[in-house]
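Table S2 (text version). Query chain:
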Amino acid sequence: MAQNRIFVTHVGSLIRPPRLVEFLKKIDANEPYDATAYQACLTASIAEVVQQQADAGVDIVSDGEFAKGISWAFYVHERLAGITIKPLTPDEAKNPDVSPLGGRDRLAFPEFYAETDPPAFLKRMNIKVVCDGPIKYCGQAQVQRDIANLKSAVARTKVVGAFLPVVAPASVLPSFRNEHYGNERDFLFALAEALRDEYKAIVDAGLIVQIDDAFLPYMHEKMV
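Corresponding structure-token output:
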């Protein structure tokens, strides 16, 4: 398509509307919720945020990452077989090689993080991820829901294109324990192959994939 300007896009995560946040809080806390009402709210919220992006002049829009209630990276834990999420022991929580948290920045500015880390976030991050079986992608239903919601919303607007943010292999399990594969290379290749299913589903649907690897600089912060 001929054009005389640079297309506008953005990173992907946008502010969730309050009614959607209420569902996400219940899901995160493992409290009962109306699944049908949640799906309807999610679809409507994505339609609204896509329209807001279009109205603001964004050419290539996203679903705002609204379907990723857990986090931009850990959402995929629910879409992978072969991993188990376990709570950290008190000693593990203090070990930056094990805990998803840690690093020089947190040591240097503990008052800042004490104020900005909500209890729900700290609880969510107080985990270790154990690979205890063959890693396989089992999130076909979720990714197809995400694709359908975004494409339906885009169909009502006049935008150039749309993308779905997804997590990069290195950011899925930043502090994992391998109890299944013989070496780290086999583990990482199996993980990448599983994530390929999600990436390919999005591309096959005619959408753009945005691969987030925010843990890359974060892991350097922890290692050094």
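Notes on Table S2: The chain has a mean pLDDT of 88. The CA atoms of residues 34 and 129 lie 29 Å apart.
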